[in-house]
């Protein structure tokens, strides 16, 4: 696995019972996964020769993140290395412009969007979406994607994203006018404009797909974001209609199939007040919105990602219990979490703690907790309490 | 953790989410746990200086097996090393003679037993137990333990055990007469004679105890042995009365407290036709009879063993589901289990496979599977099928 973050750490953990030999390419020996994996190569994933040496002796290589340059992945494939997901799929997680164009082409509902050239072009986009809000379906080729052009009420503010390199709210701006629209262009990377969707909540549809085409769909979850960072996930999404849940799963399965995804695919979605679902982001790897599966599903996203990339039959994605809640643990003011452990473990013996071995920095994701049970309010309160206590924002 | 077997492998795995730094002392770099742990010292646990160097920088040391010499553990403690469980507890798992004397002293029911000197003394033991079978409570100090002397029908055959070094049926003989009784004495180790208990089935009561005295009890399980090797575990033990279940848990908790056990304690038990429970063996570490907890309990035995030895509050030991069945996977004629994976995973997507990374040798424990559900017959059949298929004794 390329990338030494917590996703690699938890994927390695999930591979131990399957007897899977796991080799890691990590930026540093201190990275989250490098602390627990016993076969670690330290090196730069942006360097093709490093990737080539790493790939020697691997049956398959897969990824903790989507930042490996696409041309390197193509070079590895040309060498005969098995890359899963492959570059033709990963480009859609790597480049938001390519992703939006492709999803629109295959009929998947997205926010209206187009690549913008400069702040004046952003203003033009805002005007276009404000107009088309009244006249659904009027978007043309290269214009704002027409699939979602029925919700109305776009215009300013506009969401701007650099097409590459963003994550957890980085590389994303919500701008209110042409002046504010200047900043995203400073990076010199193409910028994608998207309408700011008036969503009621965020959902995620997670699926896993094998090279031979088997696919499984996890229950659709609700993802609660704070400042662009996932804070809490509720599985399944409370009160989601069977129709929308089915549509969300079908969208994710369609994307996985049409884009040739192998492994875990997370499709982040907006649910709108008028009962529609729009695709926000894609991730072709285990994802924060699937961490609940470690304790709440028969087979975790990590185990199923490994099974998929190794072309083993996939595991049962069904939930084991009525409700599972995941809450991210962010770093607070205390570098040592030991005292938090004592309190949280004693208070809630059924709490499931997953820490990443990262140095605590304020606001940094350093772990997550899972709780499960039959009473959603109680399950949420337990997860919330543990996450807040470990962070240090509450002390009892 | 001292010892590189599968118990260390699975304990390490359970420690990853808790962010526990895990260091391993392994006989070879190929041992089961040495394949997955990233901080491995290769060395001989029988060498005190090796143990001393290993213990440097460890907050606590614990064990994958009970073979570390007691005098070495005492020397480590004298050095200031925190050893859990400590030598005063571990001696009872290390030496069956000490264990029997101590359990009898604290009123825990055991098979009648005593240390025997030679084959003639075994014959004397057989005669004593045949007599006392008729006259309950007549055993004296140094004679066959009286606690169990009410079941009747002892005499020949007699069970002989070397007091140290046995496991999985090794170091145990069932002898029918004085001639057969000669072999166990060849090793030069003291020999313990025990009555052959007419048991209806074997149970195990697993508990975990912390240094500060917190303890949790897992549901009592049925353990099905084949040729002295655990083959299958059913959790909870089907049809076990609440009274006997409670008694078994109380016995295990009493042993843990009285012997000062820290960590996981497995108490293997005989259930007799006349409704009694007798202690067979003790293990002060994670144990085969607790493997079901990985998928069937809120907190696994491995996680709770770590929490105990680190004096963290213990996790909830309750079952997550009505029935969980564990079946050991023994090595068969096929060195490569990959094709077995394809079939078993496709046939039963909810199957939980736990392999140890060991070379396949006929009859060697190389892994286990867990299944769970509401219908015991179906859950057992699934576990049995997968274990037999992976071994190669069935092909469809």
UniProtKB/TrEMBL annotation, chains A, B:
It is an enzyme of class 6 (ligase). PROSITE patterns: ATP_GRASP. ATP binds at residues 96, 161, 194-197, 202, 280-281. Pathway: Purine metabolism; IMP biosynthesis via de novo pathway; 5-amino-1-(5-phospho-D-ribosyl)imidazole-4-carboxylate from 5-amino-1-(5-phospho-D-ribosyl)imidazole (N5-CAIR route): step 1/2. Residues 131-151 are annotated as: Disordered. It holds the Pfam family RS_preATP-grasp-like. HAMAP family: PurK. Its EC number is 6.3.4.18. The keyword ATP-binding applies. Belongs to the PurK/PurT family. One of its GO terms (cellular component) is cytosol. Catalyzes the ATP-dependent conversion of 5-aminoimidazole ribonucleotide (AIR) and HCO(3)- to N5-carboxyaminoimidazole ribonucleotide (N5-CAIR). The gene is purK. This is N5-carboxyaminoimidazole ribonucleotide synthase. Residues 100-310 form the ATP-grasp domain.
């Amino acid at each position: 696995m390329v990338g030494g973050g917590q996703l690699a750490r938890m994927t390695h953990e999930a591979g131990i019972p399957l007897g899977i030999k796991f080799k890691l390419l990590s930026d540093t020996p201190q990275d989250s996964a490098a602390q627990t994996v016993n076969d670690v190569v330290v090196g730069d994933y942006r360097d093709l020769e490093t990737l080539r040496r790493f790939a020697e002796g691997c049956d398959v290589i897969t990824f903790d993140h989507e930042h490996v340059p696409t041309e390197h992945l193509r070079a590895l494939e040309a060498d005969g290395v098995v890359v899963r997901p492959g570059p033709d799929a990963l480009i859609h997680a790597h480049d938001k412009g390519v992703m939006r164009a492709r999803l629109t082409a295959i009929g998947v509902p997205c926010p209206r969007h187009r690549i913008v050239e400069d702040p004046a072009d952003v203003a033009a986009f805002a005007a276009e979406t404000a107009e088309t809000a009244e006249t659904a379906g009027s978007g043309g080729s290269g214009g704002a994607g027409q699939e979602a052009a029925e919700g109305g009420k776009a215009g300013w503010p506009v969401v701007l994203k650099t097409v590459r390199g963003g994550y957890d709210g980085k590389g994303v701006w919500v701008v209110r006018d042409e002046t504010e629209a200047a900043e995203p262009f400073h990076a010199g990377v193409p910028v994608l404009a998207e309408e700011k969707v008036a969503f009621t909540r965020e959902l995620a549809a997670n699926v896993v797909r094998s090279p031979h085409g088997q696919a499984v769909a996890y229950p659709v979850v609700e993802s609660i974001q704070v400042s662009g960072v996932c804070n809490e996930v509720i599985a399944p999404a409370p009160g989601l209609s069977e129709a929308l849940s089915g549509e969300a799963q079908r969208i994710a399965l369609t994307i996985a199939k049409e884009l040739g995804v192998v492994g875990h695919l997370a499709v982040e979605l907006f649910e709108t007040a008028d009962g529609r679902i729009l695709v926000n982001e894609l991730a072709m790897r285990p994802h924060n919105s699937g961490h609940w599966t470690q304790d709440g599903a028969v087979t975790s996203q990590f185990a199923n990602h490994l099974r998929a990339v190794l072309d083993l039959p996939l595991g049962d994605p069904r939930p084991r219990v009525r409700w599972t809640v995941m809450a991210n643990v962010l770093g607070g003011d205390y570098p040592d979490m030991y005292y938090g452990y004592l309190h949280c473990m004693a208070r809630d013996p059924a709490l499931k703690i997953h820490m990443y071995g990262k140095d605590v920095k304020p606001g940094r994701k350093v772990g997550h907790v899972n709780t499960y049970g039959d009473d959603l309010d109680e399950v949420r309160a337990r997860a919330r309490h543990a996450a807040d206590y470990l962070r240090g924002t509450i002390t009892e």
